Task: inverse folding
């Protein structure tokens, strides 16, 4: 008759085979207690602990089981080897590689143990110093974040300039914020900062109704990729700072500030008095940036960003008005407005002309200007007061008046990014075609999009007075309790650096409120790493949608169950492209259900108000138009093991992301509803690192990664069939009845093995198979290739890859060397017989794709990291390898092929360990 311990162990084995691992663990532990001398329950327990990802506990139970077996003198070699193998694998999953070699004898006869030891030796050789794993992991990750781009390259690196917002003003303040010691807000794609202003106003509105004196502090981090955006914000902040100081200010002085704010913030052409004030404010900003500490302490620009912002200000002061005179501005305003009117996706009814603004609306339409404040009309060369009062208005807006405007009024130079336009001229050669977007209807903005409700307005300026009076009053109210921190750069990169503490400039800052008190600064604080409210605007339209938001924004928000903290964004670029939010998530995440999103990213979405409201008929067929902001909240940090998606599901999902990232479906370009597929293959490693962090077992992820770097995958996943990636296809991805199919990813193998070698020290676990195909870090080098001709069309999209192809193998069957690249990558050899003589050989032997690279527009040069052995083959004069640039949205070649040998591709003399 079996003992109690044996019965419990056998019950545990039944549960183990059924996949009920936590129940099995309980039975194994009970069995071990029932017979403390028996190693068998502990051996079984170690296996279950390994499968659930508890590797430290697994190692402990292996060691206890081995001790008991040795004490009994009943060591079974097969059982002992199983324990050794399990311990070695657990140590590899813990990234404790030196301990693996300590546990395996140098002359170990067991083949599997010997293989594991060899793999560990290779990993240690590739990454010296990995024994100090935490220090090395942070150093390696910092280098990765700094040196490897997240997105496929653009061709035009000086991106478009979004100076004036397109959405209705919002506040991110919640009443609970006023009860906290400090609330941290982050605004990405800050644009004209309207949502920042709105948040200030709502804080002020709430706090002035409270009986107690407010003490809550507020930190605002604002982000944009353009130095011009931050420079514009600095000018506005300086003017608001001046306006908020109400002591000893005359009516004319106040009007000068308000008038300048009116013309700089949302206007195109300004009178001389506003121009003079703008220029003096620019001088003040330039002086401020040259000082080690800002002259007003609520606004702090990081040292790393000051030169770029200063350069933008200097150009506005000395160059921009020469390049873009007022006459040019007026012409472009009319042209851009016409383009905007013709936009087929412009929605909604026309906003009625606001009260008191009928004449301004006509003046704006005819002359591209609006009425200035009264004090600006003194010595007015246009005699606007008389023009507007005349019975002949607007017929008296003649060419003579327009010429006077051109000669006396000035352009709003803060709407121009000279660097962007210089790039446009270099790549297109035509100033007339330059895209500067002066289509904004300022009448609609002030009356329909911004919180401005003057009591008795007589002109548009009155709306600006109401607006900026409220904003400056809010600022005055918050002095000593507010700090604004601009950061220049790409949104996801900044989020990642904040999360990982890679911004030393943000540490040890003077504590908020100390400087204003006049007391010596005695305490310091770090700027926040966690934000209560993260407002992304529509930046995710360009940075991977919900997937990008989950990977980069969610980590800098706290866990909350009631949406007190959240990250939010909207779809503005292509809302008609998506049927609903589920299809939006399916396209970017390949996850068809909210329950799956919750089990991977631990985030839930609050339904939009518009989802429960009937939409106007004209909007019902236009997808996400009118949907507003998607509000997401992080619910937990860890997914309990029983709640994890199963291993086959996670495997299929990662394979699906790999194929969608590497081989996106072709799409029409240009298109008003273009959906971008921006991520490069580094996204796989960020996803894997995220999965490990939230509780998915490392050996699952290790196995997936080890298989991927082998060059082929047996998978249920499939390349993208439609744009967007439909919910139906996402569900099919996880259909367990689908058979596995073998899919070659050999063209991506050089990049994948290079990236895996680079990322492994940062992942926190090792791989059990595939170490032999990984290059050492010292043999990963940086290369460049320069192209003589590039097609710049739609070059702002993150859609470009480097393609290396061996033309000796890629012999066309016809007279022209047309390479059907996507069909090659899709393993469609049967469809390629009319295009290539040896399509399979091309894919397996003659093709290398690089998705992780950066292009420099001025020199037409791409730079990338790659394993040295592959590049030596490509650069061998005896081979026919050529480099070219392809775009993966419409899958065509845009960079004239360059022979890789004879200096076409250059080794830059830098290795990954340098």
Result:
């Amino acid at each position: 008759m079996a003992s109690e311990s044996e019965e419990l162990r056998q019950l545990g084995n039944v549960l183990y085979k059924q996949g009920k691992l936590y129940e099995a663990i309980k039975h194994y532990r009970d069995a071990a207690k029932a017979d403390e001398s028996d190693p068998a329950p502990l051996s079984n327990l170690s296996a279950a602990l390994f499968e659930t990802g508890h590797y430290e506990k697994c190692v402990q139970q292996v060691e206890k089981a081995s001790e008991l077996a040795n004490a009994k003198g009943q060591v079974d070699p097969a059982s002992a080897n199983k324990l050794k193998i399990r311990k070695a694998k657990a140590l590899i999953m813990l990234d404790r590689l030196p301990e693996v070699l300590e546990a395996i004898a140098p002359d170990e006869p067991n083949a599997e143990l010997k293989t594991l030891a060899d793999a560990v030796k290779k990993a240690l050789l590739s990454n010296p110093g990995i024994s100090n794993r935490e220090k090395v992991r942070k150093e390696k990750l910092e280098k990765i974040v700094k040196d490897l781009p997240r997105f496929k390259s653009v061709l035009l690196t000086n991106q478009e300039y979004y100076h004036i917002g397109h959405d209705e003003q919002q506040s991110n303040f919640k009443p609970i914020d006023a009860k906290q010691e400090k609330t941290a807000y982050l605004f990405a794609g800050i644009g004209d900062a309207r949502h920042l202003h709105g948040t200030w106003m709502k804080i002020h509105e709430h706090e002035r109704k409270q009986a107690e004196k407010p003490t809550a502090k507020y930190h605002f981090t604002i982000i944009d990729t353009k130095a011009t955006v931050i420079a514009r914000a600095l000018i506005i902040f300086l003017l608001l700072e001046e306006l908020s100081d109400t002591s000893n200010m005359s009516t004319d002085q106040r009007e000068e500030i308000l008038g300048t704010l009116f013309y700089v913030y949302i206007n195109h052409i300004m009178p001389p008095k506003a121009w003079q004030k703008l220029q003096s404010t620019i001088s003040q900003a330039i002086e401020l940036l040259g000082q080690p500490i800002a002259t007003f302490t609520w606004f702090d620009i990081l040292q790393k960003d000051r030169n770029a912002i200063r350069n933008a200000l200097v150009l506005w002061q000395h160059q921009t008005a020469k390049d873009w005179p007022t006459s040019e501005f007026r012409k472009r305003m009319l042209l851009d407005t016409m383009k905007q009117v013709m936009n087929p996706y412009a929605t909604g009814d026309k906003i009625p002309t606001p009260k008191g603004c009928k004449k301004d609306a006509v003046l704006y339409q005819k002359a591209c200007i609006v009425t200035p404040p009264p004090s600006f009309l003194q010595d007015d060369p246009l005699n606007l007061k008389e023009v507007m009062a005349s019975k002949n208005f607007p017929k008296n807006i003649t060419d003579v008046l327009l010429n006077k405007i051109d000669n006396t009024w000035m352009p709003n130079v803060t709407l121009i990014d000279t660097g962007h336009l210089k790039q446009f001229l270099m790549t297109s050669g035509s100033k007339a075609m330059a895209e500067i977007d002066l289509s904004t209807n300022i009448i609609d903005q002030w009356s329909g999009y911004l919180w401005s409700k003057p009591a008795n307005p007589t002109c548009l300026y009155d709306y600006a007075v109401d607006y900026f009076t409220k904003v400056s009053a809010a600022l005055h109210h918050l002095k000593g309790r507010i700090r604004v921190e601009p950061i220049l750069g790409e949104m996801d990169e900044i989020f990642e650096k904040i999360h990982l503490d890679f911004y030393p400039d943000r540490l040890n800052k003077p504590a908020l409120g100390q400087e204003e008190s006049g007391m010596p600064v005695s305490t310091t604080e770090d700027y926040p790493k966690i934000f209560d409210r993260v407002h992304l605007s529509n930046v995710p339209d360009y940075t991977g949608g919900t997937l990008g938001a989950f990977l980069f924004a969610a980590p800098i928000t706290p866990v909350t169950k009631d949406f007190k903290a959240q990250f939010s964004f909207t779809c503005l670029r292509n809302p008609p492209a998506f049927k609903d939010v589920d299809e939006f998530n399916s396209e970017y995440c390949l996850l068809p259900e909210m329950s799956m999103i919750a089990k991977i990213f631990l985030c839930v979405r609050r339904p939009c108000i518009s989802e429960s409201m009937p939409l106007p008929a004209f909007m019902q067929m236009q997808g996400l138009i009118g949907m507003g902001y998607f509000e997401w909240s992080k619910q937990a940090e860890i997914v309990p093991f029983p709640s994890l998606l199963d291993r086959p599901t996670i495997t299929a999902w990662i394979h699906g992301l790999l194929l969608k990232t590497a081989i996106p479906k072709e799409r029409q370009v240009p298109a008003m509803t273009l959906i971008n597929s921006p991520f490069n293959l580094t996204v796989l490693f960020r996803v894997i690192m995220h999965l490990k962090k939230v509780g998915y077992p490392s050996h699952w992820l290790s196995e997936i990664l080890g298989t991927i770097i082998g060059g082929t995958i047996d998978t249920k996943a499939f390349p993208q069939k439609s744009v967007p990636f439909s919910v139906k296809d996402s569900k099919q991805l996880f259909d367990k009845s689908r058979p596995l199919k073998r899919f070659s990813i050999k063209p991506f193998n050089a990049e994948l093995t290079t990236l895996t070698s680079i990322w492994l020290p940062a992942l926190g676990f090792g791989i059990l198979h595939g170490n032999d195909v990984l290059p050492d870090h010292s043999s990963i080098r940086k290369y460049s290739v320069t192209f003589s001709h590039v097609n710049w069309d739609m070059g702002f999209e993150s859609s470009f890859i480097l393609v290396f192809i061996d033309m000796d193998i890629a012999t066309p069957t016809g007279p022209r060397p047309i390479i059907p690249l996507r069909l090659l990558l899709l393993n469609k050899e049967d469809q390629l017989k009319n295009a290539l003589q040896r399509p399979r050989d091309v894919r397996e032997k003659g093709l290398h794709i690089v998705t992780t690279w950066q292009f420099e527009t001025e020199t037409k040069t791409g730079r990338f990291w790659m394993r040295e052995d592959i590049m030596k083959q490509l650069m061998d004069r005896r081979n026919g390898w050529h480099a070219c640039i392809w775009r993966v949205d419409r899958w065509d070649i845009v960079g004239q092929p360059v022979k890789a040998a004879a200096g076409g591709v250059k080794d830059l003399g830098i290795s990954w360990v340098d």
